[in-house]
Design goal:
Length: about 170
């Protein structure tokens, strides 16, 4: 992907040079975090066991940046990188704290590193921030009971449009 800089920027939000700089910034902390997860009372030697399909920092960082920029589903990233959906989830969880420590918003000469500082700098931020978690709506199996729980969006849409065309 780095062979096509414009595509790289569109997909990740960073230029190839910025990506490499970010990789260098988090590399030592990433290695320390990986070492800290190793058990001290190991039976096997370090390096034993199942190998990661995406062991390289660059690949894992690219997965995270694609997720963060495009907010794609784990399922799509699973197909793009040929790894299991649970691995994508682990990568996102692994990089979220690392990246959030390194990204600093610079506003009018003042560095902003916390959410409270960001709210202070941008007072209307709370109007923009929202919880976008989808919640499944369970509907009854019987058709006659489904109509009672229906949101009626289709019906309202057609009624509003038919009234405005008159």
């Amino acid at each position: 992907m780095s062979q096509r800089p414009r595509h790289f920027h569109n997909f990740t939000g960073l230029t190839v040079k910025e990506f490499n700089k970010l990789k260098e910034l988090i590399e030592t902390e990433w290695k320390q975090a990986r070492r800290s997860k190793l058990k001290t009372n190991r039976i096997r030697k370090i390096g034993g066991g199942r190998k990661l399909k995406l062991p390289e920092l660059e690949d894992r960082l690219l997965v995270f940046l694609l997720y963060a920029k495009l907010y794609t589903s784990y399922l799509l990233l699973e197909y793009l990188f040929n790894v299991d959906e649970s691995n994508i989830c682990r990568i996102v969880q692994e990089f979220t704290p690392l990246i959030s420590k390194k990204i600093v918003i610079n506003r009018r000469g003042k560095k902003i590193t916390t959410l409270d500082e960001l709210r202070e700098a941008i007072p209307d931020l709370d109007e923009v921030l929202a919880n976008a978690t989808e919640q499944r709506v369970l509907r009854p199996q019987k058709k006659k009971n489904q109509k009672k729980t229906s949101l009626g969006q289709k019906e309202n849409f057609y009624h509003e449009n038919s009234n405005s065309n008159r």
